[in-house]
């Protein structure tokens, strides 16, 4: 049986037994150290270049051909000069590269093969394939106990791995190394993957970045969207709404180049945009795509979520409302069906004078969009109107939004004093609950509330505050609370509905 030889260089795992298993080892040769008697100076030079303190090679130790510039000792290059400490560069540049190298690969004995914060990742493109694999083995495997560098005995030299305790690396490990190497060579893909992993790390980060209450719920929403539309046609302008052949045939794939982002990454991008209102150029840098691609993705997915989740915001029946009526309502206003209020969202000032006058809110002193929000006594959002200009009155929005079509005889609708819709509700045999107005004093000047009116006002205010809390939840999606760009106007209604649906996934505002 031929003798087994190991390479004596640090972080090199060349082994004669690996020649029959790995293709890259076929051309690797092993060269013995110069002897003390015949060539002591060359031997000392070899040992100095290895940079192993107090090291004396054994009979099984050699230096493999990967460390020689010419692949073997030659007259021009008789010494091994390609090592990990000089980034596998020739001896002429090794000193300069060593001085410039501020960080190095850590000792696998002390870190378990992991890269610390002070380490850098070397560009593998300039190295031989096997050399790159050898370096990568030190830090890419998350389970060092499966590899040779965690099996060395106590008392062995810590700066070097004893080859007698080496074990073979599986082909699955090699595949993982090549996959990770490709990620390291693609910074856009790596940054995108790290960001998505950060967003979906746990329930807390999921809620902060996306607005979904938990990670399982986030994944469930994606599964619903993914199954509801196997073939998505992405928005690319006004003329892109027609149905294509690949959308009608589930087995047919879309023509053209493959998209950079996966569906899940596009889903996360859209939710982060809604939740945090991050600029499109910043999202484009994180996900490694263009700004136009970010806008296209957000428009497409917002419309998809609106189509799938919009119908889930339903106006409940009177029986369901009474079944889950909180105690605070039962004691004072047991027939309350819905609590309504209007809210406004700031927008950039339009160029058109007509649009400026239609969207200018005298209450906010700003150009705004306005919407009617209705909640059940438990705090769930059960009605969201489309957006109107900030100059529109609450009465007009209530009348034209379709809310009155949901009213049934005997319902009680709670609102603020500004909702002058009592006559509209009386036509449907419903009742309006608003705080009483002040009345002229019987004696003296001025207006005031009676004692009973003060108590009623307090009771109504204590319950009506829940609609303000629901609106606050909606505005926690900063795409709505920040000043909205006018280029988002075409999907503003869809964004409002999607954000309202995501708010309903959170816990109830009013405890039973």
Automatic annotation (TrEMBL):
Domain THAP-type: 1-83
Chain segments carrying region Disordered: 238-257
Basic and acidic residues: bias regions: 245-254
Key words of the record: DNA-binding, Metal-binding, Zinc, Zinc-finger
One MF term in the entry's GO annotations: DNA binding
Cofactor(s) listed: a divalent metal cation
Coiled coil: none
Superkingdom of origin organism: Eukaryota
PROSITE patterns: ZF_THAP
PANTHER family reported in the protein's UniProt record: SI:CH211-262I1.5-RELATED, THAP DOMAIN PROTEIN
Name by which UniProt lists this protein: THAP-type domain-containing protein
Species per Swiss-Prot/TrEMBL record: Pinctada imbricata
């Amino acid at each position: 049986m031929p003798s087994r030889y190991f390479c004596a260089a640090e972080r090199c795992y060349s082994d004669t037994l690996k020649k029959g298993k790995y293709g890259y080892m076929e051309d690797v040769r092993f060269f013995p150290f110069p002897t003390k008697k015949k060539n002591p100076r060359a031997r000392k030079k070899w040992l100095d270049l290895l940079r192993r303190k107090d090291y004396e090679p054994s009979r099984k130790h050699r230096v493999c051909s990967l460390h020689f510039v010419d692949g073997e000792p030659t007259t021009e290059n008789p010494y091994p000069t390609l090592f990990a400490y000089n980034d596998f560069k020739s001896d002429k540049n090794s000193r300069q590269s060593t001085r410039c190298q501020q960080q190095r690969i850590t000792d696998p004995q002390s870190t378990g093969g992991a890269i610390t914060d002070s380490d850098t990742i070397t560009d593998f493109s300039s190295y031989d394939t096997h050399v790159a694999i050898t370096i990568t083995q030190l830090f890419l495997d998350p389970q060092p106990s499966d590899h040779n560098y965690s099996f060395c005995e106590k008392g062995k030299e810590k700066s070097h791995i004893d080859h007698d305790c080496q074990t073979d690396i599986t082909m699955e490990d090699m595949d993982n190394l090549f996959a990770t190497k490709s990620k390291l060579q693609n910074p856009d893909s790596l940054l995108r993957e790290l960001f998505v992993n950060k967003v979906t790390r746990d329930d807390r980060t999921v809620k902060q970045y996306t607005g979904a209450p938990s990670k399982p719920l986030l994944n469930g929403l994606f599964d619903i969207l993914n199954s509801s539309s196997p073939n998505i046609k992405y928005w690319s302008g006004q003329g892109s709404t027609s149905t294509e052949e690949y959308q009608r045939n589930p087995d047919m794939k879309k023509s053209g180049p493959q998209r950079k982002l996966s569906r899940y990454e596009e889903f996360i991008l859209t939710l982060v945009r809604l939740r945090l209102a991050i600029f499109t150029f910043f999202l484009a840098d994180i996900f490694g795509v263009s700004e136009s691609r970010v806008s296209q993705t957000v428009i497409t997915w917002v419309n998809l979520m609106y189509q799938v989740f919009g119908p889930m915001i339903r106006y409940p029946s009177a029986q369901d409302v009474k079944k889950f009526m909180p105690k605070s309502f039962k004691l004072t206003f047991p027939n309350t069906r819905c609590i309504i209020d209007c809210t406004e969202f700031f927008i950039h000032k339009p160029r058109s004078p007509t649009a400026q006058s239609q969207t200018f809110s005298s209450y906010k002193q700003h150009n705004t969009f306005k919407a009617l929000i209705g909640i059940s006594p438990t705090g769930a959002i059960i009605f969201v109107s489309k957006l109107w200009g900030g100059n529109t009155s609450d009465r007009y929005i209530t009348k034209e939004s379709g809310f009155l079509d949901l009213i049934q005889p005997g319902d009680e609708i709670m609102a603020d004093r500004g909702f002058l819709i009592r006559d509209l509700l009386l036509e449907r045999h419903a009742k309006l609950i608003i705080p009483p107005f002040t009345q002229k004093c019987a004696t003296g000047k001025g207006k005031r509330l009676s004692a009973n009116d003060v108590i009623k006002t307090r009771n109504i205010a204590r319950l009506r505050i829940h609609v303000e809390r629901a609106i606050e939840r909606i505005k926690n999606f900063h795409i709505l609370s920040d000043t909205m760009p006018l280029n988002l106007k075409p999907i503003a209604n869809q964004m409002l509905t999607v954000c309202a649906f995501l708010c309903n996934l959170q816990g109830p505002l009013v405890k039973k």
